[in-house]
Amino acid sequence: MPRLTDARKELRRAQITEAAVRCFGRSGLERTSIADITAESGLSTGSIYAHYRSKAELVQASARATLAKRAEVLGEYARAENPPDPDELLARMTSAIDPVEARFGVQIWAEATTDPAIGRIVEDMIDRMRLLVHDCTTAWLVKAEGGDPVAARERAAPIARRVIALYLAELLQTALRPLTEETTS
Amino acid sequence: MPRLTDARKELRRAQITEAAVRCFGRSGLERTSIADITAESGLSTGSIYAHYRSKAELVQASARATLAKRAEVLGEYARAENPPDPDELLARMTSAIDPVEARFGVQIWAEATTDPAIGRIVEDMIDRMRLLVHDCTTAWLVKAEGGDPVAARERAAPIARRVIALYLAELLQTALRPLTEETTS
DNA sequence: AGGCTAGCAGAACCACGGTTCTTTTTGCGG
DNA sequence: CCGCAAAAAGAACCGTGGTTCTGCTAGCCT
């Protein structure tokens, strides 16, 4: 084949990372072999290495993609014209948690503990989420109580921090819950 | 050697798990080889396998030991005759966090995601901690406001859950912080 | 004090899995 | 359409690391 068109290429990359995330969520980062990912994605070893230099790079890409998706969802909730109060915001955030992604997320935390590159990704993403929540909370404060926006932003900071903390804890709890337990949708 | 006395045996086991936790905290569960642990502990391969059937079992033992130690500390704070208010309790809990153990703890969470045995250990330990915090919080409520103890216990439940959540989040944040950053004690 | 037995050291084994190489196929530019 | 270079398949390679095996060593029991 000649150089794949950029759209196709991006599609393949997504196909690979999505299969990878499913595998990781099922068996963990180190316990899923490249062979597992080929089986899950329907592709082959060579194909994967044509798109990612190494397994580590694939993990990074998967982490970025997953966390970005999560931040995306959060961003939508936060940008709603009628900003929800913190409790409501938290409720929405937690209800949007996907079990498989939660598992992968926790595994990524563990990896971040050791690998600086992953560490940067995770910290960056948490900061971004915190900022989103911060914005949302200040908007709510201003709308609910009026007053000085910069003072509201000041007061919103600790609230945002707490919302994020509770969200992360909820994510952890979801990740720890056995995968078969929540098939009652 | 003849059969080691039980005390000595327990000592060796502790020596091994402590070395293992240091290694895990430094390089992660899967990236530390048995060879690394032998180097860190000053013992040899054979010695380790004389005390633990496999690496998985060693990880479980290390997890149990570390989490138990953490619960121990928490228990002391919770059993103080003058029960601290929730904020103070949380502050004490977080101040007792050791960075290396925090890292190992997060890695254990990730492992729990995949391995049911580890999962049971983690969930059990979190439940135990929650119970301790719950006890402490009800004691504080009763002392601060008087009233019906069973009603106080009822009202303490969500507070305890939140304290635990915030504690876990703080643990995560500590684990993510680079190891070299907090050498300013 | 001495020896028997279990701990311990360290080499050797073996399998698994990441990466690479070769061959075949395929899609896009001319 | 045609061909070429890139991508995909899959076999092969190689290192790493968990486990096991073989002695030797040293502590407890009599």
UniProtKB/TrEMBL annotation, chains A, B:
Domain annotation HTH tetR-type: ranges: 10-70
Portion annotated as DNA-binding: 33-52
GO molecular function annotations of the record: DNA-binding transcription factor activity; transcription cis-regulatory region binding
Keywords: DNA-binding
PROSITE patterns: HTH_TETR_2
Name used for this protein in its record: Transcriptional regulator, TetR family
Organism annotation: Lentzea xinjiangensis
